[in-house]
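To: structure desk
From: M.T.
Subject: fold request, one chain
Message: Could you run this one when you get a chance? Sequence is below, nothing fancy, just the single chain.
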Amino acid sequence: MTDSATLAIRKLTLTDFRNYAGLRLRAPAMLVALVGANGAGKTNILEAISLLAPGRGLRTAPFGELARHGGAPSWAVAAELETAEGLTSIGTGWSGQSEAGDGGGRLVVIDGEVQKTAGALGGHIRLLWLTPAQDRLFAGPASDRRRFLDRLVAAFDPEHATRAAVFERLMRERNLLLEDLRPDTAWLASLEAQMAEAAVAISAARLVGLEALRTHIMEARSESSFPWAEVAVEGEIEALVAAKPAVQVEDEYRRILNDSRGLDRAAGRSLRGPHRSDLAVVHGPKGMPAGDCSTGEQKALLIGLVLAQARAVKAEAGVAPLLLLDEVAAHLDRARRGSLLEALAALGSQSWMTGTDAQLFEAIGRAGAVFTVEDGSVREAMET
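Reply: Done. Structure tokens follow.
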């Protein structure tokens, strides 16, 4: 891809998704603002877009809950996507089937061809998002920060999400096998060997992704309107990968899993591995752990991290990821809102934002389009 490459949804179609019976939305600009009252369906549009990437979307809701009340027990999301290679059609949908596996029981179609799993979407679209639920990310459980970290890494390395899904599946199989007082030891050893291979790949990708992120944080620290952060991953396997050859770490983690069978059986879960790692973030200018900062400071740190990661992805892949920013401007002053819109425009890839007041996006200018969202319908609110 070239430096001028872009990534943008040019046409979005929703069918029986949440409160939308049938939405057809054309996005003519790179900055898209969705404005409307709470409950109008703004976040539903962002959630639909998030399902065009691997995973369970920004709300991680069961697929059955996404179907429109009073409609068919099914839903579909499709988009015409502008990429460096030209226009690509991608879509996904669910019709009440099993939710097992990475595909989650949902159908995925790319340029008219049905795909085996949702992982195929990662080769066509990269996404990052921020939601109000993340405003206290740094003060919440480690699992939330770990998921946030893995989304950052997946935007940098699309295969990361698949590796993480494989590890989770293997871990579930091992946990089930350990419930048997006389498990098949050969099967256990095979699962643990596969887990070790996946764990090392996951940990290595996290370390590489964070190093790239640090580089772009430092490059912009004197220019950005958002505070810079010190970031690190705290985890047993990541520490081993940073210090030893990958093959040696695989052997060591296999031994750890073997020796932990009794403890894991008693706990009913695997107690050691990359699924226990945490993302450590420090407010750089203050030298303060992010979890001890104010809510406003944490929000600003999150925005700064996402912008830095988007720049890192653009430097590596030639195109920045598509950004979904839910209520991102609500707690920013006018100057910072303007700085955010300038930073998003400079990225060169599409950003979808939501807000309850059109004045939040007054600085969007010709680079953006503002749409009014009202219960199941969307219309352009102003010319760009």
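Reply (cont.): The CA atoms of residues 193 and 254 lie 6 Å apart. Let me know if you need anything else for the meeting.
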